[in-house]
Structure to design on (120 residues):
């Protein structure tokens, strides 16, 4: 089944994510890709770190999980990012110079979405 929808779920529990960092920019760019729509979903409970992960349950909801992480993130240790990648068996896009991805554009994400659409 071809890619039809991209869902972006930041794990920060921040309020209106469409107006934070690159999320709104990415939604607009993804919605410009023919036959693909973007949904932004706020992680409703930032306290999810305090209980066991349910990796298989999460994986059953989606066909692809792409994770972006940077080893120089000042808020999220790389070990935690790697644990999530291992548990969810994500396609981990690892960087060493992006910090917490608090920029206003994220072209690498758009490239990945286009690649998934072409290859799915």
């Amino acid at each position: 089944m071809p890619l039809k929808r991209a869902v972006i779920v930041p794990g920060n529990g921040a309020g209106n994510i469409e107006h934070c960092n690159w999320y709104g920019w990415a939604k607009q760019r993804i919605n410009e890709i023919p036959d693909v729509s973007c949904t932004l979903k706020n992680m409703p409970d930032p306290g999810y770190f305090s209980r066991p992960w349910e990796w298989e349950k999460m994986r059953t909801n989606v066909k692809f999980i792409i994770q972006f992480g940077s080893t120089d993130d000042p808020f999220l240790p790389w070990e935690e990012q790697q644990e999530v990648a291992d548990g969810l068996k994500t396609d981990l896009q690892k960087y060493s110079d992006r910090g917490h991805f608090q920029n206003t554009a994220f072209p690498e994400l758009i490239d990945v979405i286009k690649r998934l659409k072409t290859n799915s």
